[in-house]
Amino acid sequence: MIPIASPIIENDEIQEVVNVLRSGFLAQGPKVEEFEKAFANYTNSRHAVATSSGTSALHVALSAAGVGKGDEVITTPFSFAATSNAALYVGARPVFVDINPLTYNIDPEGIEDAITRDTKAIIVVHLYGQPAEMDHIKDIGEDHGLIVIEDAAQAHGALYHGRKVGSLGDIACFSFYPTKNITTGEGGMITTDDEDIARLARMIRSHGESERYEHVILGYNFRMTDIAAAIGIVQLKKLDKFNDRRIENAEYLTENLEALDYIKTPYVMDDVKHVFHQYTVRVENRERWIEYLRGEGIGVGVHYPRPIYRQPLYEDLGLVADCPEAEKASREVLSLPVHPSLTMDDLDRIIDAVENFPG
Ligand SMILES: Cc1ncc(COP(=O)(O)O)c(C=O)c1O
């Protein structure tokens, strides 16, 4: 089976983990600090704060930005649930705005209509590795005094008009889950240019401590371990190479599949570097496709099978929304393998299988 994702862990990552295990610094220590510096540098951000996951990064980011009870957070319904769950963690209400059907990212045109007196922040997601329309969204944020947070969990290394994601909004959050463009096992990172946000984020991720045993605000244990950071430091050095492979693989798939009228290949905006966390096409009869491709030994994924507001949790909370493009996309999207471990032979097998879909 060609897997839908496959993390690349080589001898250098393994050796670095062994070094940490021998050092005695197993929890947050010098490796976390080194990883934060390297990540801030990579994303052209002033500060980077490592966390235990992408989810905790989002939670900390909203807390540090002062978003809380009674506030509204505008976001996309077409993402992993962690994006809007972060609003729920801090007692805020997620408000869903429909997506652009070409890019699958939040449609800036819908944002202004969703703004109320209670709106405090916008969380955009750079879905599948393609940056959201940040210029437009930043303008809206500035006009209305809203904090713009990038959920860059799927977009490490992506560029928007030549600028790195992670430096486009007021705060950005990354995930290093094993399916992501780089991994630390579990892990996350917050980037920001705002000194106060960075300081608060450091406190919130570690029990709200201003110094040892001085708890000044409510915090959590959302720290990254040095074991994870050691993997991240090595992976970050390989990120551009991994992304180049993803892009090459995506281009090869598109060259060979775009002429087929029963499949819609991904759209890439002008002047962006889409880093293809996922290569997601649209099809009809998705269930038949899934059964067929898996039968052909090709792993596939559905990102995502329903808009977040259709999750039972959100329905129970009465967080309904009307986002027809997200509904349609959630019925049609199908992700094919695009990760950097694929061989030419794997890619040709995927193309062959799609070309020979029995319908
Ligand atoms: C868009 C998005 N946001 C947030 C997350 C949460 O990250 P994590 O799994 O590291 O908590 C993920 C990934 O899982 C994601 O894809």
Tell me about this structure.
This protein is of the alpha/beta class and 359 residues long. The protein has two domains: 11-233, Type I PLP-dependent aspartate aminotransferase-like (Major domain) (Aspartate Aminotransferase, domain 2, 3-Layer(aba) Sandwich), CATH 3.40.640; 239-355, Alpha-Beta Complex (Aspartate Aminotransferase, domain 1), CATH 3.90.1150.10. Helices cover 39% and strands 15% of the residues. It has twelve helices and 14 strands. It has a seven-stranded mixed sheet, sandwiched between helices. Strands 7-6-12 form a three-stranded antiparallel sheet, with no helix packed on it. A two-stranded antiparallel sheet has the order 10-11. The two termini are 22 Å apart. The model has no long low-confidence stretch (mean pLDDT 98). The structure holds pyridoxal-5'-phosphate. Residues 53-55, 79-80, 82-83, 125, 151, 153-154, 175, 177, 188 line the site of pyridoxal-5'-phosphate (PLP).
